[in-house]
Design brief:
Blueprint (H helix, E strand, L loop, with lengths): L2 H12 L4 H41 L3 E5 L11 E2 H8 L5 E15 L4 E9 L12 E4 L12 E5 H7 L6 E6 L5 E11 L4 H4 L2 E5 H7 L6 E2 L1 E6 L5 H10 L5 E5 H4 L1 H39 L1 H9 L4 H37 L6 H4 L10 H23 L7 H5 L3
Parallel strand pairs: 4-9, 6-8
Antiparallel strand pairs: 1-11, 1-12, 2-10, 3-4, 3-7, 3-11, 5-8, 7-8
Helix pairs in contact: 1-11, 2-9, 2-11, 2-13, 9-13, 11-13
Subcellular location: Cell membrane
Organism: Hymenobacter daecheongensis DSM 21074
Protein name: Lipoprotein-releasing system permease protein
């Protein structure tokens, strides 16, 4: 039998009703709150990160390749699509390739007029990521015989123009000669990002090709989705080295730098916040063990007098602190995971989409991060338990027995 652990368990039951009992409860609560807050904070942070990145990637892509020129307009010079697509398929990190073209236009209804950019896409090389943003109606149809007259409007554009699914709208394209096209609203999308929702209408790529008098082999650019976003920088460098001199490559992190900088700022703030939480929980554990030692000074003196070593007495308080740490971590995990589950399934905490790009607090389940947080808390708490136990070696039996 381990004598130190046996005495530690006996102390646990004997502390009921004493001042130490209140202090140990505070220590358990502080650890539980620390673990719960860390789990919830990381779940929300990763939820924000993944939700915003998903919205950006659903409309754009990790990489965009287009003609290199000095024109800052949405309309660019055409490039050869099939040849470039074939070349990009040779890179193992490339998952999906989406040719596109853009054309500025003016939408006119009976009551409103609005300028937009028509973005033409196709699904020859893979299903469009825009499908996940559809909130009403159906996605574009791509008939084989002719270009589709279906379009997708954002919720904001549809509300401003007072259009709904099934309505027709006239698009005026300013070119020489000017052209007019009538499109039918087949669906309404919503990304929550004003950069997209206030400017773009989604249509068939062949409509833009016909308006520009391009053959099927020419497109405005190519969007590339990678298998792993973490490989963005090395993959983009590798692809760029193999592109023709007249093509440019834009990374999503450069195109929407403000959004990604905001995510980085959130990450730094949460890390600082978590360090403070761990520090407070550690300080409470140190204070708790100090109080336990002070209240048990007489007992320490008696144990030393009958032959107990400093390591045995130190182990006794170590097991006591270990018990408090485990209890606090169990309660903290139950509380943190419980709160995350409630928000994930029932969404009781809403958000303003105008400011946060989403209508509710997002939750992302990252088992690896939860395990890391628990291990970090456990090791830090054990270190905090060991610090005050070294005072035991300075306690003299005669003085301790007389201690009141």
């Amino acid at each position: 039998m381990n004598i130190s652990r046996y005495i530690s368990n006996k102390i646990d039951g004997a502390d009921s009703g004493s001042f130490t009992s209140s202090v140990t409860k505070i220590a358990i609560i502080s650890i539980a709150l620390g673990v719960a807050v860390m789990i919830v904070s990381f779940a929300i942070l990763e939820g924000f990160r993944n939700e915003i990145q998903s919205k950006i990637f659903s409309f754009g892509s990790h990489l965009t390749i287009s003609k290199y020129d000095t024109n800052n307009s949405l309309e660019v010079e055409p490039i050869g699509g099939p040849r470039l697509v074939k070349q990009l398929r040779g890179f193992p990190q490339v998952q999906n390739i989406q040719p596109f073209a853009r054309k500025t236009a003016i939408i006119k209804t009976r009551e409103e007029v609005m300028g937009v950019a028509l973005k033409g896409i196709d699904e020859v090389n893979g299903i469009s990521t825009m499908r996940q943003n559809l909130v009403a109606g159906k996605f574009l149809s791509f008939p084989d015989s002719a270009a589709s007259t279906d379009i997708l409007l954002s919720r904001k554009i549809a509300d401003k123009l007072r259009l709904k699914v099934g309505d027709d709208a006239l698009f005026y394209f300013i070119q020489n000669p000017p052209r007019v096209r009538k499109f039918t609203v087949s669906g309404i999308y919503q990304t929550g990002l004003d950069e997209f929702d206030e400017a773009y209408v989604i249509g068939d790529l062949r409509q833009v090709q016909e308006l520009n008098s391009w053959p099927d082999s020419l497109v405005g650019g190519v969007e590339v989705i990678l298998r792993d976003f973490k490989t963005l920088d090395p993959t983009s460098d590798h692809i760029y080295e193999n592109l023709r001199y007249d093509l440019k490559l834009d990374k999503i992190t450069d195109q929407y730098a403000q959004l990604f900088d905001w995510l980085q700022l959130l990450n730094r703030n949460v890390v600082i916040f978590l360090i403070l939480i761990i520090f407070v929980a550690t300080f409470n554990m140190v204070a708790t063990i100090f109080i336990m030692i002070l209240e048990r000074t007489n007992m320490i003196g008696v144990l030393k007098a009958i032959g107990a070593t400093d390591n045995q007495i130190r182990s006794m308080f170590f097991f006591r602190g270990l018990s408090l740490t485990i209890r606090g971590m169990i309660f903290g995990n139950l509380a943190g995971l419980g709160l995350c589950a409630i928000q994930y399934y029932f969404h009781p905490i809403p958000l303003d989409p105008q400011n946060y790009y989403m209508d509710r607090v997002p939750i992302f389940w990252d088992l690896k991060m939860i395990v890391i947080l628990n291990i970090a808390t456990f090791l830090t708490s054990l270190l905090a338990v060991l610090i005050p136990t070294y005072l035991i070696s300075r306690i003299r039996p005669v003085t301790a027995i007389k201690f009141d």
